[in-house]
Amino acid sequence: MLVNDYMTRHPLMADPTMSIMDAQRYMGENRIRHLPIVGDGKRLLGLVTTHSLLVDPGRVGSLDVWEITRYLSRLTVEQVMIKAKDVITIGPDMTIEEAARVMVEKKIGCLPVLDEGILVGIFTETDLMAHLMNLMGAPVCGIRVTVRMPDVKGELAKLVAAVAAQGWGILSLGGAFAPKEPDKWDAVIKINDAPREQIVAALSKVEGQQIIDVREV
């Protein structure tokens, strides 16, 4: 699962001479929060975000409304964008989880994707959420079960074996360390070819494991 497979290809972009008023309108009409600014050959020059379009009140505090209008109309995205040297970028071959780690650690909402310096896509929080939705089988209805187990080898295999013994298929399977219990693991499994009651009955018999949540989604 690589960024190349889940990024937004051919993202909307702008020329550095675009006014910030036009950029704000453009972003609003297209419902985007990040706008790459590019030069010749789609070389990344910078990045405009909804935050970078906010004008410092100190710059216009002494101006009247007409002067403010003139001032804003003359501002271009080149004057407010995050310069390319300060934009965190990634390559298309980076894994999804590594891209997610970078976004979390840097507290940013997007990563322009460059291939030999050329903008080929953008990976955003929305792309990440769409991937998570697919990873957890959200597009298909089924029974979603959270099972808490000791964080030791073989526990997940026991759960999968219990499902296989019933002849059921697994629609999705994921997991994470249990909240406030670092020695436990919460596996989330989704099955769509069996009734809820039968699934609960079968998984309740797995020794040393506990069903925490069951719901149809």
Describe, in plain words, how this protein is organized in 3D.
It is a single chain. This protein has two domains: 3-133, CBS-domain; 143-216, 2-Layer Sandwich (Alpha-Beta Plaits). Helix content is 34%, strand content 28%. The protein contains nine helices and ten strands. The protein has helices at residues 3-6, 20-30, 57-60, 65-74, 77-80, 96-106, 125-135, 155-165, 196-203; strands at residues 8-9, 34-38, 44-49, 82-83, 110-115, 118-124, 143-150, 172-178, 181-191, 210-216. The strands form three sheets. The chain has a four-stranded antiparallel beta sheet with strand order 8-9-7-10, covered by helices on one side. A hairpin with a 5-residue loop joins strand 2 and strand 3 (44-49). The radius of gyration is 24 Å and the shape is elongated. The two termini are 24 Å apart. The mean pLDDT is 90.
Key words describing this protein structure:
Alpha-Beta Plaits; 10 strands; 3-stranded antiparallel β-sheet; 4-stranded antiparallel β-sheet; CBS-domain; 9 helices; alpha+beta; elongated; 28% strand; 2 domains; 217 residues
Question: What is the strand and helix layout of this fold?
Answer:
Blueprint: H1 3-6, E1 8-9, H2 20-30, E2 34-38, E3 44-49, H3 57-60, H4 65-74, H5 77-80, E4 82-83, H6 96-106, E5 110-115, E6 118-124, H7 125-135, E7 143-150, H8 155-165, E8 172-178, E9 181-191, H9 196-203, E10 210-216
Antiparallel strand pairs: 1-6, 2-3, 3-4, 5-6, 7-9, 7-10, 8-9
